């Protein structure tokens, strides 16, 4: 599969992605646990059908030491016993925040309360920001049909 647009090499696309990367760096440098960050990026990318991001974040997570079992079970986290309650709350918020258009109520108060039990306000701000950033990356990659499969951990910095 070939990309529809060389978005990453386009002047406007490249400027936009640099800005998005700066926003992502704020989250990376936040107190939100790194494992939670990767799980959130993987789950949102799965929901959005973003092969390039799913490829990248599963490989980055594995490279950082995440277990194959947990990586294989992200899509079915509700039925899996390998995630902490905090990770489950983050995954639930990710799903609801990613599927806003699918539910008239958006993110439920219950999902927010579960996340707030496990994360302080700074971590919650980082979690919300991360969900927004990964959804933006997913949309760029899906719209431009970026291919997946050849990503190498650390390739994008």
TrEMBL record:
Transmembrane segments: none
Gene Ontology molecular function: peroxiredoxin activity
Pfam families in the record: CMD (PF02627)
SUPFAM superfamilies: AhpD-like
All residue ranges annotated as the Carboxymuconolactone decarboxylase-like domain in the record: 23-95
Stored InterPro entries: AhpD-like, AhpD_core, CMD-like
Name of this protein: Alkyl hydroperoxide reductase AhpD
């Amino acid at each position: 599969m070939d990309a529809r647009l060389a978005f990453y090499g386009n002047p406007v696309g490249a400027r936009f992605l640099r800005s998005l990367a700066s926003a992502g760096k704020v989250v990376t440098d936040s107190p939100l646990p790194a494992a939670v960050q990767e799980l959130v990026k993987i789950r949102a990318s799965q929901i959005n059908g973003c092969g390039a991001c799913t490829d990248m974040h599963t490989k980055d997570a594995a490279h950082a030491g995440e277990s194959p079992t947990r990586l294989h079970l992200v899509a079915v986290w509700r039925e899996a016993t390998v995630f902490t309650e905090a990770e489950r709350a983050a995954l639930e918020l990710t799903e609801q925040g990613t599927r806003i258009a699918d539910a008239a109520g958006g993110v439920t108060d219950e999902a927010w309360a579960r996340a707030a039990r496990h994360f302080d306000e700074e971590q919650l701000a980082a979690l919300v920001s991360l969900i927004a950033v990964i959804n933006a990356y997913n949309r760029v990659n899906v719209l431009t049909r970026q291919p997946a499969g050849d990503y190498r951990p650390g390739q994008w910095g």
